[in-house]
Amino acid sequence: MPLQSLDIVRRSATTQPPPGVRAAASPSVAKLIDTSKCIGCKACQVACMEWNDLRDGIGTNVGVYDNPPDLTDQSWTVMRFSEYENPSGNLEWLIRKDGCMHCQDPGCLKACPAPGAIVQYANGIVDFQEENCIGCGYCIAGCPFNIPRISRRDHKAYKCTLCSDRVAVGLEPACIKACPTGALVFGTKEDMIQHAAERVQDLKSRGFEQAALYDPQGVEGTHVMYVLHHGDQPELYSDLPKDPRISPTVRLWKGIAKPIGLALMGFAALTGFLHYVRVGPNETTERDEEAAAEARKRTEEQTKRPAPPETRPPGPGKQS
Amino acid sequence: MTEITRRQFLTVSAASLAGSSLALLGFSPTTALAEVREFKLARATETRNTCPYCAVACGVIMYSWGDRAQNATSSIFHIEGDPDHPVNRGTLCPKGAGLIDFIHSPDRLHYPQYRAPGSDRWGRISWDDALGRLAKLMKADRDANFVTRTPDGLTVNRWLTTGMLAASASSSEVGYLTHKVIRSLGILSFDNQARV
Amino acid sequence: MTNHWVDIKNADVILCMGGNSAEAHPCGFKWVTEAKAHNKARLVVVDPRFTRTASVADVYAPIRSGSDIAFLGGLINYLLTHERIQQEYVRNYTDATFLVRDDFAFEQGLFSGYDAEKHGYDRSSWNYQIGADGYVKTDPTLAHPRCVYQLMKQHYARYTPEMVERVCGTPQAKFLQIAELIASTSTPIRSMTIMYALGWTQHSVGSQMIRAGAMVQLLLGNIGVAGGGMNALRGHSNIQGLTDLGLMSNLLTGYMTLPNESEQDYAKYVAKRTFKPLRPNQLSYWQNFDKFFVSFMKAWWGDAATAENHWGYEYLPKLDKSYDMLQTFELMAQGKMNGFICQGFNPIGAAPSKAKINAGLAKLKFLVVMDPLATETSEFWRNFGEHNDVDPKQIPTEVFRLPTQCFAEEDGSLVNSSRWLQWHWKGQNPPGEARTDLQIMGELYERIRTLYVAEGGAYPDPIVKLSWPYLNPRSPSAEELAREYSGKALKDLADPENPGHVTRKAGEQLAGFAELRNDGSTASGCWIYCGAWGPTGNLMTRRDNSDPTGLGETLDWAFAWPANRRIMYNRASCDPSGKPFNPDRKVIAWNGHAWTGADVPDYKVDENPSLGMGPFIMNAEGVARFFAKDNLVEGPFPVHYEPLETPLAANPFSPQQPLALNNPAARVFKDDRQAFGKADRFPHIGTTYRLTEHFHFWTKHCRLNSILQPEQFVEIGEALAGELGVKAGDRVKVESNRGYIKAVAVVTKRLKPLQVAGKTVHHVGIPIHWGFTGLAKPGYMANTLTPSVGDANSQTPEFKSFLVRVEKL
Fold it and tell me: How far apart (Å, rounded) are the C-alpha atoms in residues C679 and C194?
């Protein structure tokens, strides 16, 4: 069984509890992206494609440095460039590596209706299991950062795995290893927070008074974090959301799922697939209950369902 | 546990109120178990090399199929930075990180080619014919145009009608041998990429 | 580099000017981010474009392309007038105290001795005053009006902050902010590194830009110290090695130069290169020239090189002029060349004025291309529509395309810009029938030699007598060649101090160039590499990365020339008594009887500092030169001259002297001058460069890199785009007097119009990486646009500043 490599704490659309006897072998991990050290070289993009055996199409230039211009099933990370003239009249070229944030409370996993298509490991990595994916695109709607992409080739959702295959054998992700300037670092989340604090101090000494760590609490923190020179204005960095949260629609979804599921237990028993229904210890039961209560008040919302995007969905900033 | 196909799953899914979470049915098919991708370097052969692009000269590790047994033909399938290298410490830039696509570029040349005067296409040529003809062309040009002495009697021993531009990404040994050969012929029009 | 990549972490200030290291050398640039993160270093970027290097800078200043000497002259003036110099260093380790001849003069942009007709100088007045004792006269007080210090001060007095702004377009406040930051490193304990590359070399005054940078560093005492130096980042993986090995028209190995035709006499050839000390008790290491030269000739011609035939001096071709690449393509365009070999070099992409290169190649009888990839040069005769619109029927050139190995398919060494010789190993065979360069060059030579032995021909001696001791003569091995260029004893070598004792047995590898002899008893193909494969084996394979001092010298990693030294001129990191200027960054020090420390001393190891030997032991002066004497063709002090194609009508520093508008000593061929454009038709400044996503013209053949930057583009500022009605993503035509390209427009805030001498000037950024072969979208060769003129000393083409016109399509 594959659970040998990384212990799973959550699975999409599954309430069968994961094995819970072992203490997590690896602590919570994090990737820290220091935008103040990033030179936008795209080594991370290449390392990602190279390691994961992905090759995006050779596109065109649309008048900017961003290429490919957006995340795709083949490009799990892209650099986003924005030119910003600060109040003192100096130009800043703010470059942000975009990709999965590996939320502690992953909206994609919550939204996913396919059992085991999205899992979260004990170390915090949120991983897609494409063989279980049904290509419905709910993960995209569930993601407050607009990350997953459905492949035109096999109609399954893809995104950064945080190189779970490398992490599983004790290596850092491919992008981390490649990053020439050390803008990307990887370690325990605790160490990364410590590292970020030193970087923030350095940036403050260089006049960036609002420098800060980006570890948004609306999704209970992320396993990919940023150091921003302008911590008070994350939206300057190509619309990085200021306060990302899982879309209320998705939360609603999760909320109504439970009562409906319970109502259908009899049906399930007849089909012979009955298992004891129990919410896993790490599931956010309370929130589900709250959402369910909210749902009861707004029953008209019941049939509403987010549609998978056809092209690029609205920017994550607008979803927050 | 009973296997469930995607079709069956979708049927069940539809039956259970259009995609309502099957989680709450306690339903967990075996295919739903997570599996990280197999670590692809497990028994690959490692070879140390140096990135051929810029002059930072990052250390790289090339991973190839085959354990160098006689019957195994090595083929490199992955390259990453050498963490022991004092300069790059395992990192690579977007060029170095993509080296595998240089080695296996569809534009790599596989055999000698010859383009005849006025022709609009390549033809194949054997190494023997190519180097044989080239040696003759070079000797004929050298013998016809070699300058032993200038009109005012200075010994100069130079050949000016053939020239060469040498690489500056080839190894020092290639450069050394190339210089030795070219200078022994008396060629002066001889530069490398350092000129630009 | 005088220093090396890891050493950048020791810097307090980093000046990136004339280079864009974050994009061109990202993994080396890591040491800039390390210096910032762990040494509180400040990064200063001066560049016409706000680059990705600028994106992480503490201070960025724009500058008009080609005006760097005005900026650096402004810095020199600032440091001198504010007395922000490292006094002890300048007095003791430079020629500041040296007196210059009275007939040396500078007026209205021209130095003494100018001949307008010859477009060059009689340089005899550009020299020191020599005393009766044969040594240079000096004034230790620096007060003498003819001392270098005073002449320099006078020369740069005109380079005021106002003039910097007027000529460079750099706002005065930014210039002063940067000058102050740089001046902070004049204290003995602070250091600045300068990182430059093609942004300085690719100008008609490129060598002088680099000199001006070096002068700033000498005033600040930043040469020879940890975290200091003049650091040429260098382009290709072995551009350093191939230059060290002398693969240039006028060189032999190890920076020995080929004889000129006037040097018929061997003794005079040697004497001219054997520098006699210009001050008492100076080492002047080039005094050993004949040891290097004789050992070199023995490596190449073996037993045929004898004392009687002056070690085969006649075998060497003699120069009548420079045969650099621009000269070669001029000769080709004139139809004076018949054959040409391109080994891993794509001149249609890399050389200026594509039309001229194309025309020249079409006049050849035969062209040979050795390359792993299908280059444009190999297909110059083929029609690729608008990107290479030629008629193959009209091109009579025979073309041979020979497939070679790539790096992954060979053993061998490469020399990086830190001067490290690092060995690499083969991981797979070359594809198909492809062969190694060693096999191709080896077999080609063998076949030519066989023909000469059988048939005779023009002067066969240097060919048939060439030493060729390789086990497989058609395929010499990398190991054999590495041993040969490193060097060995040909006879038992007796210890000169103790003649009964043999220091090296015949056949044994030598440990270093100090063992070389001038009597034919040693052979070394490249003296500066001597010891790389020493008596203990191949030091280039060493992989011990330990760094006991934390300064990053890693002496047991690979081999650095010369003599495994990591920081050149490191004696200058200590005060005259031998104490480190900065005790926290102790590179070497005098311990009472020897020089020791973290690095290999660049000095005589047992030389007591009280004896006054200078730290610059390769110079006859023993010290570093502010005054270049006659070593550069356009003058001993750098002067601002306009690019050959300039938006200005006059040189703002010497508006009355039209001869001083551009480099007065530039070599311009007649047809190339005709092809220059003027600002009335071509009002914008074009500048070419590389992007971090690509490497020259190679990576457009790699899918991963083609994904990152798939299509040719040019960059224009928002102001110019507004004038032209161009939006990001529109197609534009960029035209010079030599041709045009069409590309997508990237419209950006990162290129700002500059106010220069009362005019508004716009730059147009032209990345070079596309062409008509490869996986990326087909494009035009950027060098369709560039002028065929080089730096007056190095003949490196002026790719960084020329005139174009941009139009919306």
Answer: 33
Of C349, C403, C394, C347, nearest to C371 (Cα)? C403
- Mean pLDDT throughout C297-304? 98
The pLDDT value recorded for residue A26 is 62
Report the neighbours of C using a cutoff of 3 or more CB pairs below 8 angstroms: A, B
> Is residue B118 in some structural domain?
no
C-alpha span between C592 and C494 (Å, rounded): 30
What is C570-611 written as a DSSP string?
Answer: GGGGB-TTS-BSSGGG-SEEE-SS-EEESS--SS-TT--GGG
Q: Is A122 a domain residue?
A: yes
CB pair distance less than 8 Å for B19 and A305 = yes
CB contact under 8 A, A174 and B32: no
CA distance C798 to C788: 7
Of the candidates C400, C428, C443, the beta carbon closest to that of B76 is on C428
Choice between C412 and B19, residue whose per-residue pLDDT is larger: C412
Q: CATH homologous superfamily for C6-232?
A: Dimethylsulfoxide Reductase, domain 2 (3.40.228.10)
pTM listed for this prediction: 0.93
| Nearest CB partner across the interface for A2, out of B16, B17, B33 | B33
Number of CB atoms found within 10 A of residue C402's CB: 27
d(CA C48, CA C203): 14
In this structure, the answer to whether residues A223 and A192 fall within a common structural domain is yes
CB pair distance less than 8 Å for B33 and A180: no
Domain housing B151? 146-195
Cα–Cα distance for residue pair C342/B192, rounded to 1 Å: 10
Q: What is the mean pLDDT of residues C18-46?
A: 98
Chain A, residues 190-229, CB within 8 A of chain C, namely 199, 202, 205-206
Q: Does A64 touch chain B (CB under 8 A)?
A: no
Q: Which of B174, B163, B191, B160 is nearest to C317 (CA)?
A: B160
Q: In this structure, what are the phi and psi dihedrals at residue C686, rounded to the nearest 5 degrees?
A: -90, 145
Contact A48, A54 (CB under 8 A): yes
Residue B131 in any domain: the answer is: no
List the single best residue of B46, B48, B50 to mutate versus C (max C Cβ within 10 A).
B50
Chains linked to B by 3 or more Cβ pairs within 8 Å = A, C
Cα-flanking dihedrals φ and ψ of residue C10, to 5°?
Answer: -85, -5
Chain segment C345-382, per-residue pLDDT in tens: 999 999 999 999 999 999 999 999 999 999 999 999 99
Q: Does A116 touch chain B (CB under 8 A)?
A: yes
Compare all CA atoms of chain A with the CA of B95 and give the residue at the minimum distance. A43
- Can you say how many angstroms the Cα of residue C191 is from the centroid of all Cα atoms in its chain? 23
Average per-residue pLDDT for chain C: 98
Residue of chain A minimizing CA distance to B42: A169
Average pLDDT over residues B130-158: 98
**DSSP conformation letters of A169-227:** TT---HHHHH-TTS-EEEEEHHHHHHHHHHHHHHHHHTT-TT-EEE--GGGT-BSEEEE
Topology adopted by domain C658-808: Barwin-like endoglucanases (2.40.40)
Distance from CA of A56 to the nearest CA of C (A): 7
- Chain B residues inside the 8 Å CB shell of C253: 176, 179
ipTM: 0.98
In B64-93, the residues whose Cβ lies within 8 Å of chain A are: 78-81, 83, 88, 90-93
pLDDT digits (tens, 9 = 90+) for C334-346: 999 999 999 999 9
Partner-chain residue, chosen from B50, B76, B194, that has the shortest CB–CB distance to C414: B50
- Does A49 contact C707 at a Cβ distance shorter than 8 Å? yes
Give contacts of C262 with chain B, Cβ < 8 Å: 154
Q: How many domains is chain B built from?
A: 3
Chain C residue whose CA is closest to A74 = C707
Do the strands C522-523 and C366-371 form a parallel or antiparallel pair, or are they unpaired? unpaired
